[in-house]
Amino acid sequence: MKIASAELYVIQMPLKEPFLTHLGAVKVREGIIIKITNSDGVSGFGEGVAFSTPWYTEETVKTSLHMITDFLIPLLQKNPIDHPKEASLLFSSLRRNNMAKAALETALWDLYAKTHSQPLSKILGGTRSSIASGVVVATDSTTKALQQIDQYLKDGYQRIKVKINPKQDYSFLSEIRRFYPELEIMADANSAYTLKDIDRIKALDDFNLLMIEQPLAYDDILEHALLQKEIKTPICLDESIVSYEDARKAIEFGSCQVINVKVGRVGGLYEAKRIHDYCFEKGIPVWCGGMIEFGISRAHNIALASLPGFSIPGDISASNRFWEEDIITPEVNVKNGFVKVPSDPGIGFKINEKRLQEIMLSKETIVF
């Protein structure tokens, strides 16, 4: 992989509707796009999915940009690689900053797949030609939640996730269940509860949820194990799993029955695949989580979700779920509840250069 240059774009685009959780509202999404070009003029694309503020993890767009330009790219310049997995091992010398690592590493995977004239899904070991699509309902209004669910079901989405917290859980879910008694629903708590709320969480067993995602602290594994013993609803861990080792320990401790894999959260596709492979071996279902991405990250998620262990519909919705116009062509579409896995080399999507220029805040080019 003879890299010639790296181009870093900071972009910003408004969401069609605010994305609400108890942690805050996302109305405008900022992000980083990375273009890695080799000596033959072939380019691979990655996306940094950190938010503008550190509400989901400690990373932000600015800190990611700092890590990429001042540490990660210099490592690549000094240590040429032949395969993207070598980048993951190389970057492990730096602690955390997983979203910065993933932004650069995913661009290398796209470039590698293109230079081998293979779809990224096949390079990773994917087996599916299409993947089931799920969607998130993130609003503080029961009426609006029901309206969104109705529309999403008409659009064919196969799994609905709703955001909950102690101020909006039992009555909220009860009303949804009244209208949709058989619907597959999962609840995402984003660490809104503690073990003091155990009776409140137990009560949610009434709703036959597919799972409850990250009910306790964002960095906890042990207390989730205690909680899982007390409730019937399967626990899914999200924020707690930032590495293969976290996944291994969570499964061994009995902290969860499901794991949400997010490429950015775990530091890239190599680590995401390692987690998938371990969970697949242990019979633990995984699904691909979303980060309110632009199209490039969404494309990487599609490739990852084509692996056999991703048996639960992920947060891979259509481009028009969030954006008036995405930065890829064609845009991601959901048809009859499924997203097609591209068969073209790399991520299988082209960059909408016109749209990229329209929403670009800054650009930096680094020559290797």
Can you tell me about this structure?
By secondary structure, the chain is of the alpha/beta class. The protein has two domains: 131 residues, Enolase-like, domain 1; 219 residues, TIM Barrel (Alpha-Beta Barrel). The chain contains 13 helices and 15 strands. α1 crosses α3 and α2 packs antiparallel against α3.
Descriptive labels:
368 residues; alpha/beta; Enolase-like, domain 1; TIM Barrel; 7-stranded parallel beta sheet; 13 helices; 15 strands; 36% helix
Question: What is the topology?
Answer:
Elements: E1 3-21, E2 24-38, E3 43-48, H1 61-78, H2 84-91, H3 98-115, H4 120-124, E4 130-132, E5 134-137, H5 142-154, E6 159-163, H6 170-179, E7 185-188, H7 198-203, E8 211-213, H8 222-230, E9 235-237, H9 244-253, E10 258-261, H10 263-266, H11 269-282, E11 286-288, H12 295-305, E12 328-329, E13 338-340, E14 350-351, H13 353-359, E15 360-367
Helix pairs in contact: 1-3, 2-3, 9-11
